[in-house]
Amino acid sequence: MSIEHEFTRWLRRNDKSFVENLRFAIKAWQSVEFSLNTKYEIIIEWISEQDLLQDGDVVVEDFVELLTLKVHPGIVGQQIKRQFVEWLLNLAKRHCNVPGVAVTRKWPEILKLLIEFELLQDLYRVDYELNARTYAAVFQCYEEYLIPMRNGTPFLFNHESEFLMSVFNTLKDYIKLCADISKYEKCFTKFTIEPFVRVLLELRQNSLDLFEQLVEVERLLTKESSGFDAALRVVKMPLYVRLMVLESSLVNRKCMPEFVQELINRGFNDFFSLLKSSQDPGLVLNVAAYTLEIFNRHDINLNMKMNDNNKTILEYLGFELYNGIKQYTDTHTLEVLLLLRAALRLNPLLLEQKVFELTACIMLAPKSNDHEEKHSFEEYLVLLMDMFRRLSRAEKFVANLLKAIKERVAFVEFDSGKVIKAKSPERMPSPAKKKKKLFYTDEKEIQLCLRMMFDDVFKPLDKSKCESVTTIIPTDHTFAKLQNFWPSRSAGAAFSKLITSLMSKPSLVIWKTLLFSLKDILEMSATNLDLDEKTLFLFDFHAALLSQYFAGCKLMEQYETHLDAISSQRQFSFEILELFGKFLLEREHQIRLMSSFLELCYSTACFELTLLYYKADSCLDESLNFSKYVEEMHSYLSPQEWVLVEQRVVNFGKPNCKFLLQRLQLQRVQAKMLLLSQATNLQYSVFPTLSNDPVLVNLMLQSPHAEWMIAQLEIKEKELIAKHILTNLDLLSIASHDLQLLELVTLAIFENLSQAIASKRSILKSLTSYFEKIRQCTEIGACEELIKNLIEIVIARSEGDYKVKSVNRTKIQNALQLLGQLPIGQLRRQRKTIAFTVELALYRDLKTAQEGDLAAQTLEIIKDLLHFGQRLFIFKYFTTESLLKVLPADNCWELYEYFFSTIKDEEKGTEQFLDGLATILFNSQCSNMLTAAERRLLMISIETLNSVSGVSAKRLRKHLNTFLEIFIAYVKNYFSSEHNDRTTKSDKKFVQNTLSGFIYYANSILAKQSNAADDNINIPEIDEDFRRVVKTYIGHSVSKERNSKGLAE
């Protein structure tokens, strides 16, 4: 038997597995001693015959070792090597995507090494198709590996990019060494380009963009191709591949006119006929939009001439696009919007001649409730106005848009209040659910690839481009019927921004254009008593544009140089509103028409008020006279006609319509407050108007100008507002914007609290007679006298016994909740002191009535009152004895902690308070009746006075010795022989309660001994009793520390 046959028999041993035989083969390959020249060919041929291998038989480490072995390529025949490559490709096809098995990078790694296998390099250099198929298998297996990562699996960017860059670099090196690049390009396009593109799309989904690699590969493959051939190659590819390769080709050849012209000619030629013949026009429109976005991304020159005619690319594309999309605005609105947005981004002049007709068609097309479509529509309108702003053609935009809308509206039937059901084309399948067979691409997968590409390109517009320029436009409910045609929040705000950017002359032209257009509508509809939906839409649209014009207008900044033109326009606006109002009253009540009229009245008056308010004092023009304007405001209708309008709104109007009328009434009040007060330097009173109309008061408090208006009111008017707020609690936050109003609301709540206590002996009830004086009191001296009177009543009534039998718990609970919501701590000091006194009276009443929970809630409000805002001088108004009587320390200890925290700031009456407290504590100690609360007061007094610093420290510390003497007497009294019944437990409790004071006492004794020794002064030495007391304190304090550590552990 020859050595070849024996070696083959060893490789085919049935008692050994494939893995064992393969490892034997690798060792034989590497063996220097086994010098059989044909062993390499025998091993490769044997491996190629293993058709029944399972995935588990393919061990990565073994194949990595095999495919990295070094050997001269010519030592194995071409046919056997080709057979080996085909075998491994088929094995990868069978096992790359096994159901139920986790997908790893096993097969891409093996196939990558197959490409780099030294033995196969001569085969790959001559067999372009086999090389292209191998690369295709690498990309297809790698795509299978990437798909599960969409489900949230962490993506290792570095590792993946390293692997791919290795593959790409090998591919690029191979192309550079190709003898016939044109031939290899055909094989690559046939087998490899599609999986290559799919991998790039999957990577893009994982936020790793390697598009530059495709650009580089395409550059190498097509560097010898003409522009015509390169364009023809792109057009013949599958759709999603074509779009990706199109972009890479544009990057490489965008400066080559021949290629760009041929590409556009083939890509957009017969665009209209392609739409007609296609079963999916939406897809054709999306592809066209994608192509334009790519042109814009890579800055393609559109001014090049086309080959077959004298048109530029810009003119050619504009003609083709208009003819292609004009009939699909109703049926494929979203796709048309994407295409129009792409055209505007590419070049605003692309559709300039037809953009108004298309915009009118889009605006009046039936809309679905699809969010994407609505968002795209709003973005298109914003982008369109931004285009005309940059082109400085705003006047042309307004005039042509109005003309196009009027022409288009005659040919459509629509209901502005109705939306059609959302069109629901077949959505792309979820990437996690899709199952695909290797080396085969079905229709759903093609759609999925297209969706990946479109989502990457059709991104939402930057939010900053459609932000509101002002809060003047209340977009929540304004022109609700126009939301499907001209959304106020987006398009309306963008239109105001467009107007804001204009100089005076273009702004005046637009103002006049809008007024004349509205006049035309009024004249055309003069004979129609019953207005149809189209006419109502036109009225709404014109009123909206005029309102949004006034919201963004800046004419008042340059009125001095254009006074005559502005005055003429104001007079014309007056005439149009007069004509509009009479037109309205000649017909039966129509809610939409009435709402449009009232909106227009309000916005026009807002503009004129701004103009008058900011005019220079030197301007004496009669049309800008304050008094005359206020007198004639809204005078385009007579008072009798306004009464008719009001009757119609009240009887037939909906809530929004009533709101618009009330807003006009409030505007008159605001105008008088704004202009007449400025003209006469006197505060204009609106009390007669407000007192008779609670609805108007409510509207005023809800307006954006509520804070300013409240500041202009007199005290009597603010009292009315305070009462109104307490009946409309949703307006309670308004009170915090004005300090005087906050005081009045707080006082009104106290009045409600006094009514909730029925007992006439109540302290709070006895203060009720002072409430009117509190309102009227404005002088500091009078307020001080009033505070003292109130406190005297509280103290006097607290010293006697009285009973409060019944209280209205619900009413008190509600009032306390309101006080808790108000920032009463920010009141002025005197008013805050009054509030503290009234709260104190309420607290005493509730404690007497045994309403513990309500009393605790009141105490919390008192704490907040003291802690926030200006500090109250409590010691100034209360003696120590009276304070302890009104606020017992055992119930209100947190308040006393606050009181002592103010001592270091030298509050008024501090020293009197300390003297009084020392006297009380001394008397209690002398009578051996020092209570627990008094002991706590003694401890906090010593701690506070020992820690004071600053200028007042020396003066305040003189009180420290007094309190220390009381403390010494207290301690000595406890440890004296009179307390022989003491126990260890009682000693420990005593030490815990007095430890903080004893530390300061012991330190003072030791300091005296030290100072006496230094100065040679004879003082009594520390006696044995003191040592025994110190030892007791040390023992129990150490025990306490150990116990606390044990609990912590």
From TrEMBL:
What superkingdom heads the lineage? Eukaryota
Q: What is this protein called?
A: Nucleolar 27S pre-rRNA processing Urb2/Npa2 C-terminal domain-containing protein
Query: What organism is the protein native to?
Result: Glossina palpalis gambiensis
Q: What is the lineage of its organism?
A: Eukaryota, Metazoa, Ecdysozoa, Arthropoda, Hexapoda
